[in-house]
Specification:
Layout (H helix, E strand, L loop, with lengths): L2 H14 L3 H14 L3 H11 L8 H11 L2
């Protein structure tokens, strides 16, 4: 691991009050819990197209006219 990366992670771990190992473990767990862009794209594609009751520009216009 490059020394500058190690220093940064060690500093962040100290600021969080945990060991470097605990900090890296948490970062990896958080990263693994999020979908990759490819996984997210596949999930969106699997849902199929959305059927709207009206064109989106009409919805936006109505919201703007109400002052929201």
């Amino acid at each position: 691991m490059p020394e500058d990366v190690h220093r940064t992670l060690k500093s962040r771990a100290a600021a969080a009050g945990v060991s470097l190992s605990e900090y890296v473990r948490g970062e990896l767990a958080r990263s693994a819990s999020r979908p990759t862009p490819a996984e997210l794209y596949a999930r969106i594609q699997a849902r199929g197209p959305v059927e709207l009751d009206e064109p989106s520009e009409l919805t936006v216009r109505a919201i703007r006219e109400r002052g929201e």
